[in-house]
Each structure stands twice: as C-alpha cells, then as structure tokens.
Design brief:
This protein is of the alpha+beta class. It is 33% helix and 19% strand. The protein has a domain of 171 residues: Cobalamin-dependent Methionine Synthase, domain 1. Strands 1, 2, 3, 4, 5, 6 and 9 form a 7-stranded antiparallel beta sheet that branches. A two-stranded antiparallel ribbon has the order 7-8. The longest helix has 29 residues. It is globular.
Length: 270
Amino acid sequence: DVATDNPVPAPPFWGTRVVKGIQQADYASWLDEGALFKGQWGLKAPRGSGPSYEDLVATEGRPRLRGLLDRLRTGNLLEAAVVYGYFPCVSKGDDLIVLGDDGAERTRFTFPRQRRGRRLCLADFFRAEDSGETDVVGFQIVTVGSRIGEATAELFAADSYREYLELHGLSVQLAEALAEYWHARVRAELGYGGEDPAEIEDMFALKYRGARFSLGYGACPDLEDRAKIAELLEPERIGVKLSEEFQLHPEQSTDAIVIHHPEAKYFNAR
C-alpha cells in the first residue's frame, strides 16, 4: 500500500562529492541533548525529593556541554567531513538496484520484509523496475575524525572514567548531529527541505519528509551491506575505513541510505 505516484526529485548532481572542514557551529546545533544527557551521560533526577531533570540539565548538563564543546573547538579535536552522493535506481521485489551511468546494474541491496502488518520493505519506497521510471537514492558517510577518539583513549588510559564517558558520549552524539545536519542538506538539495518542521525537537522526532536509514538497524540490519556503500562512496577520502567486521573506523562515524519517499519511516523488519 505504499504510494507509487510521488514525484521523483532531481538531484543537483549524480555520483559523489567530498566535503571537509565543516565547522562545529554548523552541526552542533543539531545535537540531541536528550540523547546525550539521558542516554550517554545518564543524567536523571533522584527518586523522591531533589532537583528535577530540567534543573539538572540547567545546572549540570548544559554547563558541562558548553565546556566540552569549547575544549573541542580550541583543541581542534574535530575533523568533520562528509562523503555523499546520488545514484539512479529502481526496485525489484525486495531488492534496491543501484544503476550506473549506462543504466546497467551497478550493485544491489536485498532488504528483509515485515512478516505482518504492512509487510514493508525498504525497496517498496522506490520506483519498480517495470514501471518504466528511474528513481534516486542518496548515500552518505559522515565522521568527526580520529582526533577526538585519541583524546578519549588518553582519558581512559589515565583512569579518568567520568571524563572519558562524557567525552566519548559527546563524540558519538556529535557524529549523529553531523549526520542529521547533512541529511537536512540532502533534503534541501533534492528540493523538499522547505517541508522541514520549524522546531528542532520535531526534527529529532523525525517529522520531516523521508528518512535516513543507518546500516545495522530495523529495516536494514545486514552490516555486510556497508561494503556496498563503501564501494559507491570511497570513504577513505575522508579518513574512514571499513573493518573486516564491517565496522566503521573512526568509531565516531556513521553511514546511511537516504530515502526521499514521503512514507519512508523507521520500522523493524525482523
């Protein structure tokens, strides 16, 4: 029941581009404070009497965050970079087929399908091969570089565990912030960025058009597919390598399949 008559946007270019030297101020505003304070730092109000969570955020969370961001900036510990691109594609059953310049198959992703409910599969959000139309898919890999990982390793080696956990948690969330920031750039380049909500909280609630699906989760759980994205994007150009276990290095890096279809939202296929 996925719509097949949604307009296919025209990308500003075909192939890939590398962007380096992205300024911290550009993507730090996309930092999800809730995910950082609660998920990474474990900030929570005590049971019974005591300060509320909002009070703790104001007195502990945000001051500590500002201090760490200043340290990252003055110490030049962030090397934010992106490699991304747009590729023609079609779908066939559960497969997303990425096409080359000549229209021939370049690579293929096979995604799992839900066994109940809407029986969704990521391939459903692209034009079918037999439709006579060609769709567009985006891929992106972002990183905040290796220096911040080296800084966290030094804290761990020095038994500075609290500082290590805070800086490591922030580095992971900054990589996510960069990924969200660049996804917004992709939406703008594809012509529907104007549909984005005005409030940042609605951004974190994914109330924008389309979705950014990272490998290893929900609808695309197979990490082996990272090798296909790496072959398309060549992330070594921004200092990111893929391990034999299909993990991205530096750790503070993330990849994604960017889908423009208005109905594309997160779901679990298994």
